[in-house]
Design a protein that fits this description.
2 strands; elongated; mainly alpha; single chain; about 130 residues; 5 helices
């Protein structure tokens, strides 16, 4: 366990807020977004459902003064992997988004990468291990 810096907690909270908005939009508006972005509805809905759980986890982490360092590192690595996977999806040929869809995938990949970086910096600014 580590003492979470204010910077880390704010980075986690920002991630939770934006992920929560995306979760609701993709879960309940998958059909509309699928048509808008020319992306598979099932991909968007399942992404939204995953983000509901992710939002709960990251929101919970943001609310704690002390955090398991390994769990925060998992979030950072997960965000970095999401960024890479999002761009790889565009090059894979598995989907054929229109220009708006490509822009959305790239924009959310960049945002997720920024969250990973901010959370990593926040982790480095956090205090030493909590002792019992």
């Amino acid at each position: 366990m580590i003492f979470a810096s204010t910077f880390l907690r704010r980075a986690l909270l920002a991630d939770a807020v934006f992920s929560g908005i995306a979760a609701l939009g993709f879960t309940f508006g998958a059909g509309a977004f699928a048509a808008l972005f020319n992306l598979p509805e099932v991909l968007l809905r399942e992404t939204g459902l995953f983000l509901i759980v992710y939002t709960a986890l990251v929101g919970w982490l943001a609310s704690r003064a002390s955090l398991p360092k390994a769990l925060v590192l998992l979030v950072v690595i997960g965000n970095a992997a999401w960024t890479v996977a999002s761009i790889a999806l565009l090059f894979s040929g598995a989907v054929s988004p229109n220009l708006a869809g490509e822009f959305m995938v790239v924009a959310q990949a960049i945002a997720t990468g920024v969250f990973a970086e901010l959370q990593y910096l926040g982790l480095r600014k956090s205090g030493s291990a909590v002792t019992a």
